[in-house]
Design a protein that fits this description.
The protein is globular, with a radius of gyration of 14 Å. 42% of the residues lie in helices and 20% in strands. α4 packs across α5. With 128 residues, the chain is α+β, with helices and mostly antiparallel strands. It contains 5 helices and 3 strands; from the N terminus they run αβββαααα. It binds FE2/S2 (inorganic) cluster (FES). The site of FE2/S2 (inorganic) cluster (FES) has 11 residues, from α2 and α5.
């Protein structure tokens, strides 16, 4: 089978879909080749990501990757979210076909963009 059960599950029942109106950080990224767009919103309290939502206009793998990525950073320290790699997302999803790995890269980039936006709004520099 091309897609793992986890990918199918997160595609069919994506977690954390939506938007946070009073988000503390928002990140939007796109892939110029496939045209898919991903937007991630985070709410942060005392350095902890207390809520996270996403909107993805994209393929099934991009939706599954965003769903998994948001689950992986929820409840984590904001600095830990910066360490989320697309590789970790792919592993958590039980793998992605090679030509779909870029969908997980989009998820990593969207999370990083939201976290960087959080730091920027506070006038802080993200940890290197
Ligand atoms: Fe581009 Fe999936 S095909 S994000």
């Amino acid at each position: 089978m091309l897609y793992s059960e986890k990918v199918m599950d997160h595609f069919q029942n994506p977690r954390n879909v939506g938007k946070i109106d009073d988000a503390d950080g928002v990140g939007e990224v796109g892939n110029a080749v496939c045209g898919d767009i991903m937007k991630v919103y985070i709410k942060v309290d005392c350095g902890i990501i207390t809520d996270v939502k996403f909107n993805t206009f994209g393929c099934g793998s991009a939706i599954a990757a965003s769903s998994m990525a948001t689950e992986m950073i929820k409840g984590k320290k904001i600095s830990e979210a910066l360490e989320l790699t697309n590789k970790a997302v792919v592993e958590a999803l039980g793998g992605l076909p090679a030509h779909k790995v870029h969908c997980s890269v989009l998820a990593e980039e969207a999370v990083r963009a939201a976290v960087n936006d959080y730091y920027a709004r506070r006038g802080e520099t993200p940890p290197a």
